[in-house]
Amino acid sequence: MIGAVGFFVTNQRDARQDRQQVFEAAESARFPQGFRYIALNVKREDAHRLRGVAQGPVKNVYFVRLPDGSIHTEGSRKRMTPVQITFVPGQAWSVLIFQGQQLLRYRVQLDQTTYRALLTAWF
């Protein structure tokens, strides 16, 4: 994996469709200096404009962090800056807020370990 760190497989369809490999190749071509990414399950109604794989009430979306700290989603060239992460143990949805051209709010499924990793890496 050239420049890619911290991928969490959350979908068996990724392996069948080779989504991860195609994604890594595209990102490596765009950002040869390196990047990190994570797949998150975003509440489907929040993710209607995001690329990813729909899975019932969620869409599995890749979030990419570049060395300059900006973040973009799979297939997008719009860079965002993380503003806030809200995690409440035992709740179905945590909230990620980004600043792009406007504030973007995504409800995501997070466990304690992923929350801590995001908090350390993004904020």
Give me the secondary-structure topology:
Blueprint: H1 12-17, H2 19-30, E1 36-43, E2 53-55, E3 58-65, E4 71-73, E5 81-86, E6 94-99, E7 103-109, H3 112-122
Antiparallel strand pairs: 1-3, 1-7, 2-3, 3-4, 5-6, 6-7
Low-confidence stretches: 1-10
Instruction: Give the CA-CA distance, first to last residue.
Output: 24 Å
In one word, what is the shape? globular
**Count of discrete alpha- or pi-helical segments spanning 4 or more residues:** 3
Query: Describe the biggest sheet?
Result: 7 strands, antiparallel
Count every beta strand, where a strand is a DSSP E run of 2 or more residues.
Answer: 7
Structural class, judged by helices and strands? alpha+beta
> What is the CA-based Rg, rounded?
14 Å
What's the helical proportion of residues? 10-25%
Q: Return the average pLDDT rounded to an integer.
A: 84
| Percentage of β-strand residues | 25-35%
Order of helices and strands: HHEEEEEEEH
What's this, in brief?
This protein is 24% helix and 33% strand. The chain has helices spanning 12-17, 19-30, 112-122, and strands at residues 36-43, 53-55, 58-65, 71-73, 81-86, 94-99, 103-109.
